[in-house]
Specification:
Rossmann fold; 9 strands; 7-stranded mixed β-sheet; about 40% helix; globular
Length: about 270
């Protein structure tokens, strides 16, 4: 029951952001930059014709991208209003694609019939950071995949150099170090909930023995977080330079876990 209350709270919190989310992040310079990295990796990870289960799909931007690339997508989110935005977006684009949007929290994937099988799992931009028990999620996902099926998971990191430096310079040590303990409290739309920051080793352990971790890439190492959008949007050439640096260093062991996000590629054993 406690877990149910938690994902209900997260869903209600993001209901209030649904209408503004695309403007604030999806279509922002930072949002486009970070999402483009994930999309390029997704096209290399998931084959056309695959049926992908997307967790915490938000307003459906990623699901529609995958569908346009020739994949069937079942996309889930705990926020009913996010799903409403996703369905409206799909109708507006008039896509002739196999996309299904469901109001379903990640912790409730077991509610899907076991006959629903998938060729891969996708989760973008920190939805899994709202999950207190990744081991339970890993078990539920493993039941719906065949051996060799890929998972592509994008989570917020525990140590974000941009965040630490930015807030320390603003004399706000609490915000600068908020991720470093492994969890913090977030307040969105009047709702408060816990956010968790697992390390790559934490994720590897949580998903074992069902999955093995194949690779880690940093997202937003030199490209700044979204709360610096107003600044970086005025310097597009600088953003281009930052993107090129990210490409060069995102797999370096000491840097891949200190960006704004990390992208983990796992495989079902």
């Amino acid at each position: 029951m406690v877990q149910s209350l938690e994902h209900d709270t997260v869903g209600l919190a993001f209901d209030g952001l649904a209408e503004e989310y695309d403007r604030l992040f999806t279509f922002s310079a930072v949002g486009r930059s970070q999402r483009d990295v994930v999309w390029k990796r997704a096209l290399k990870t998931f084959a056309p014709g695959s049926h992908i289960l997307e967790l915490n799909c938000g307003t459906g931007e990623d699901a529609l991208f995958l569908a346009k690339a020739g994949m069937a997508v079942t996309a889930c989110d705990a926020s009913a209003r996010m799903i409403m935005q996703a369905r409206s977006k799909m109708e507006a684009e008039n896509l002739d694609s196999d996309v299904e949007f469901l109001v379903l929290a990640t912790e409730q994937i077991s509610c899907l019939p076991l006959t629903r099988r998938f060729d891969g799992i996708f989760s973008n931009f920190s939805g899994l950071n709202c999950i207190p028990n990744l081991q339970s999620v890993a078990f539920q996902l493993a039941e719906r995949l065949e051996p060799g099926a890929p998972l592509l998971l994008c989570l917020s990191t525990r140590y974000c150099l941009w965040e630490i430096c930015y807030y320390l310079l603003r004399n706000n040590a609490r915000k600068a170090l908020r991720r470093c303990s492994g969890s913090s409290q977030a307040r969105v739309g009047g709702f408060e909930f816990s956010v968790y920051y697992p390390t790559p080793s934490d994720v590897r352990r949580a998903f074992a023995p069902y999955f093995r971790l194949l690779s880690i890439a940093g997202i937003g190492i030199t490209v700044p977080p979204s709360y610096l959008e107003s600044w970086i949007a005025r310097h597009p050439r600088l953003l281009t330079v930052m993107e090129r640096i990210d490409v060069a260093v995102r797999r370096w062991p000491l840097l891949r876990s200190v960006g704004d996000h990390m992208l983990l590629h796992l495989e079902k054993i």
